[in-house]
Specification:
By secondary structure, the protein is mainly alpha-helical. The chain has six helices and no strands. Helix 2 packs across helix 3 and helix 3 packs across helix 4. The chain is elongated, with a radius of gyration of 21 Å.
């Protein structure tokens, strides 16, 4: 609603990632748009930080349950952190970064995160039927 369709259509393919910035500038002006860009950047860093902490621990627990190789369940004696899971997920992340473009990576991760979030929410329904599951919901 902030940008006319002609402005979006006339935006070059190199600048198409700036559509959100252009919309913010059209709605609030240049200064507020810059502040919003910084706030969104910090939000993306916070999200990345949270995923870096939780991703290896999820892989660790899956390995502990026997769903992934056992070596991924090894904890570092120094920091009690899942070092092999962290290293493997880091290598996979670097491979994805080196082989794809930003838009493709964003699409790839968004689909996976959306699907897994949906499965997490949907798992509550069968778990509530288990007799030993605490009924706190």
């Amino acid at each position: 609603y902030a940008l006319p369709m002609e402005t979006i259509r006339s935006t070059s393919s190199a600048d198409i990632n700036k559509v959100a910035w252009l919309a913010g500038e059209a709605l609030f002006g240049k200064e507020v748009s810059r502040v919003l860009s910084i706030v969104f950047g910090i939000g993306m860093l916070a999200t990345t930080s949270a995923l870096l902490f939780t991703g290896p621990r999820i892989a660790f627990m899956m390995a502990k349950d026997g769903l992934l190789p056992r070596w991924m369940a090894w904890l570092s004696p120094r920091g009690n952190t899942p070092i092999y899971s962290t290293m493997l997920l880091g290598v996979i992340s670097l491979a994805i970064l080196w082989t794809g473009q930003f838009n493709a990576i964003l699409d790839f991760t968004a689909v996976g995160l959306t699907a897994l979030s949906g499965l997490t929410v949907a798992s509550i329904f069968p778990l509530r039927r288990l007799p030993h599951w605490p009924n706190r919901f």
